[in-house]
Every structure is written in structure tokens, then in C-alpha cells.
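Record pair follows.
FIRST:
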Amino acid sequence: MENLKTTPLLAEHERHKALIAPFGGWQMPIQYEGIIAEHRWCREKAALFDICHMGEFLYRGDIVAGGLEDVFTFSVKSIPVGRSRYGFLLNETGGVIDDLIVFRLAEDEAMIVVNAATIANDFAVIHSRLKNGALLSDISDATGKLDLQGPLSRQVLVDAFGPEIGSIPYFKFIRTTILGAEAIVSRTGYTGELGYEIFLPADRVVELWQLLLNDERVKPAGLGARDVLRLEVGYSLYGSDIDEETTPLEAGLAAFVNFDKEFVGKAALLRQQQEGLGKVKVAFQVASRRSPRHHYEICSEGENVGHVTSGVFSPMLGCGVGLGFVKPAVAAIGSPLTIRHEAISMEAAVVELPFYKGGSLRS
């Protein structure tokens, strides 16, 4: 544990008696009162997550001339100021180096939010693709990030900081002042519920955490609940459902690839489109309350056709759900599958995403 990084909120997590465990090179809260209870609170009220382990880079320079436009699978120059966009940083073979979100702060300024375990590599790769004096700064250590998620999150923030936050549309953000510091409040999240991501100086995170938890509608939630929440709506987890050996096409995420622009890995994806996919990601629902687990085998008619990448028991559906990669021949909606691991066997079927459709995401 001594080599792991910590967020500014470690003492707060310990005060709330959180279970702390390693995640992506960090000591992070896995649960407080329990994963199911925290999951339910987020679905019904407002849950507060410490996401300070995520990485943030600040880009300054002309979007096109500085090379940023050609770095990702989506267009940065076409993002209006005040909006954000999700997509991928790819390698030459089309594999996903990371999935990320770019926030267009100004005509010549953008913030790139990346996953915790990939911060150093992402920075090196993006920096290597820039040109003409464009500046890229790693502001991760100076930046704190809290996510408030759940159907009551809008009213909580409006009551705390005023009505401006209440009018933010999905995937838009505002630059504002919180606790006397410059902050970004974004209508984004990873739970399938109405929610907000708040970026502010790291030295103000503890104060904001305490302020929000003073509201009886808000409780802290750990990464355990966050994983169940994201999987119920089918969001991919980097390192499990997508990685450098997997392309967006294989992962069913072609909607976040703009083939009308240049980006590293485009030629590989075009070849893959022509030659066909050897594996595809599917969502499956188990016919029992059993939980599929990472690396369990996926079988069809007795043949091993793939493996599970993510799986949990879904409290909202009352059964096991999961994501995994299979041969394209068994990927059609409704296809029967068997999930196996040693003596464990569970029947399942391929279904459409999201598993859970009742969230408040676009409320």
C-alpha cells in the first residue's frame, strides 16, 4: 500500500469507515455502508463519489495547427465552447490506449479528462502528436474531482450554489465559482442517472465534500457501487471491456469514431471494416441471481466462444448481467449462451443495452 497514491479525501474516507483498497495505482474507497445500499441511494437520491484519481490535461494552442484535431477519434474543433465530447485515443493498430472526454474551454483551450491508470502514458502519447508550439500541461495533481450522481443531484447543487447549475444540459458545462475558487461543473457522469462532475482546486475538495454531505439527501458511495451502476447501463470500463488489444469496432463503440477526419489508427479500423471482425462485444443477462465474473468462459452449444470482461448482480433487474467478447456468429440478440468457470455454470442470453432503462440521466 505504501507505493499507492492517495486523494485529498483519504482521511474523510477513513472517518466514514470506508473499505479502502488499491485501484489503478491509488488507495480508493470501495464501499462505506455497503455496495447495494450505496447503489440504491444513487438510483433514488444523490450519491457523492471521490474521483480525484482521474487525470486532467490542459491544452493551449490552435486546435488544428497544434495537432489536437488529429489525436482522437472525434473532432475537437467542432466541439462548441462549453460542451464536451467522449471518444478514444488509439494506437496504430486501432487498439484503445484510453477512452476519455474533451472539454472545450475556449477556442484555443481544452481540458482532457483521462483514466487514472493511464495518465502518464496518455500524456506522453498526446504530447508526441502535437506540433507548432501547442502546449499540453498535466494538471492532475492540482485538480480535484467530485461526482454527484442521482435524481436529486440537480436540486442539491441548486440549493447549495444557485440556479445556474440547474439549467446545464447533458454533456454541457459551466465555469463558475465554488467556495471562492474557479470550478467547472459538467452535466456528465458514469452511472446512468442525472448527475454532475465538479472540477475544482485539489485544496478545496475536502471542504466541498463536507458541505455536500451535510445535505441529508447526499451519501458517499464507493467504487463498488459505481461499478454496478455503470454496468447496469452498459458503460465500458477501461482495462476490462476495452484496452489496447481491442478496437472501438470490436467493442461496439463505432458511434464514437468519426471516419470523416484523420486520427491515428484510422487505417487499421478501415481495414477491419473491410475484413470483418474476429470478436465482438455482447451484453448478456443471466437467468438467475448468480454473478458472472471477469474471465469466465462464454460457451455456445458446448463450444468456448469467448470470455466475460465485466459482470455483476444487478439489483435493479434481480439477476446477473455482464459484458464479454464472443465470435460474431453467436452475437445476435436473443442468442443463448452458457457462462462457465470450473464447476460454475449459468444460462444466459444476449440482450440489448442498456440493461437498466429506468435511469434519470436525461431528466
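SECOND:
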Amino acid sequence: MNEASVREALAKVIDPALGHDIVTFRMVRNVEVQGEDVLVKIDIPTHAYPVLQRRELQQRIEKALQEIGAKRVTVVTNVETVFQPAPSDKAVLKGPKNVVAVAAGKGGVGKSTVAVNLALALQRHGAKVGLLDADVFGPSIPTMLGTPEVPASASKDSRIIPAIHQGLKVISVGFFVDKDEAVVWRGPMVHRLLQQFLGDVDWGELDYLVCDLPPGTGDVQLSLSQLIPIAGSVMVTTPQEVSIVDVVKGIAMFEKVEIPILGIVENMSYYKCPACGHMDEIFSHGGGKRLAQEVGCDFFGEIPIDTRIRFGGDAGVPIIASSPDSENAMRFMDIASKAALKIASNVLSKPKRSPRLAVIK
């Protein structure tokens, strides 16, 4: 038994969360063999990797190495968030590794609610997370997160320091205009604002930057796709057909600008009476899952109508913060895990690219 035989055995170990072998996916950092003792150091590609599947991975590694003669197997895991380096023409954003867009075909489907709770869920998993409110004409993130622990400010070198809400680094146009004032801007002004929010904000080192996009397929979506690489988009819909139709258009737009769809979330999926347990499908049911099957992308799950989710958004205390152990908070944690794993799978399935070798397409 030597390092070569150990790596050969590890190449047959399929990661239970990513569905691919751990050698091809560059998860094996180091192997040390001393007689019949083997030490394997594994890089876990995201903080949102499920705990149960991490144990399953360790058991699979131990079994594979015991079959080739190892008596003692030690598996040491380290979390290293994977990302694809930005090409040279999209290097305006410094610090965040992965940008996750949260989008919807139409307004009123709970896109901002999903964005806020997704960001907080990723943070609760252990990642460093920022939240960019790119909904320039209807910024709701400041309301949904409440009074910041640290307000946004300017540094000595004229860079923007993001506000801190619930531990998240947050930037929104809502911080800089009166909440009763309408933002009436043409496309070029929106583009310049996004350039400033991306290039002039001191985000620091982040694993994920969640972007709450405006509904539809307009200037903000196009500007972001031109300015920065986006790891993928989470599409939010409600079950009824009028919402599904608009999401299809949004998916088509992201495909044109080469932004992968990570998955679909069906919000307001049903209502469950807390008193008697009766379930009522107010806006129909299952439209999001059917759409995911039709377009060939992942379905991340259903979020029911819950007064605690609504109240949390209005009061500035999202359900992930107010009721972290509740069933619906766990749903958001699961959605965050699925989105992070999808990003990791997309990155690891591509050849490793050095930032210096990144070229303009």
C-alpha cells in the first residue's frame, strides 16, 4: 500500500452530496501513508455541505481504504469554498468568491424574502456572506433586515463600507435615498450605480454575495451579467400559471447571458392551518416542480404561506433569525445547502483555471 494505490482507491469514492468521485472533483488535498496507517486530508467545497453526508463521505473513504489493506484510516476535513476565478473583463468585484442572483419573472412572489433568508441561511451554515439589494426601483432589503448594527459609511479612501445587518454585509440604494422618495432613473444611471456598488464597496473576503434582483428581465440583470461573473441564479415563483409563464421568460434571459440556473423555489406553495392542520392550496400547487422538470433544472423546494415569515419581513427579523429551529427556517437552510452544492458541482466539473490565465471570451 502506497500513496498511488491509496489515490487509486479514493478515485472510486463517490461523494454523497455531489455525486462524483472525490479525486476528479479535486477534493483530496493530501495523502500520507505510514505502514498500514493512512491519513487523508479532504477539502469540503462549501460550508453548506450537509452534516449527515459528510459522515457518509468519511465512512466511504474508510471502507475504500480498508479494502486495500489499511488498518487505521484518519480523515481530516477542511472547508474551502470553491469558486471560478473571474475572467479579465469581469474583474470589477473584489472579495466575494461566488455571486448568487435571486430572481423572479414578476413582482410579489416573495423574491426578496427568499434572498434575505437564503443569505442568512448560508451564514448560519458557516459561510461569510454579503447581500446586495440590486432592486434599485423597489429596495425592500433595509425594511426586511431592520435597523443595522453598523450603518453604511465611507472610508478614508472614499470606498463604501457596507452596513451590517444580522451579521451580513449589506448594501442597498435604500440606504441613500429617503424611503418615501421614488427612484426615477434611466438605464445608464442604474448601470453606473451597480458599478459603484460592485467596485467601490469594500466587501472584504466573502464566500457568497447574494444579489436580490428586480423582477423581470431589464437593465439590472443585463448590467450585472456584463460586469461580473455570476455563479448562478435561484428562480422564485408561486404555483399559479401566471407566475410560471414569467419565470420561463426569466430563465430564457439568463440562458442568453450564460448564467446557469441553480434551481427553482416555489413560494406561497400552500397554507397549513396551525390550529387544525388543514392544508389549502390557495395559489394552486406544484407549478414550480413541474417547471423545473420541463426546463431540466433542480427543484429546491416549497415554502408555504406562514404568518411568521410575513411578520419577520415586516418587522426586520427574518424567520432564520427569529425562529431558527422552525420547520420553515429549516426549509431555507435546505435551499441554501442545495444552492451551494450546485455551485460547487458546477465549479468542480470544469477544469481548474488560474486567474492569470483567465481570458476574454
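COMMENT: The radius of gyration is 22 Å.
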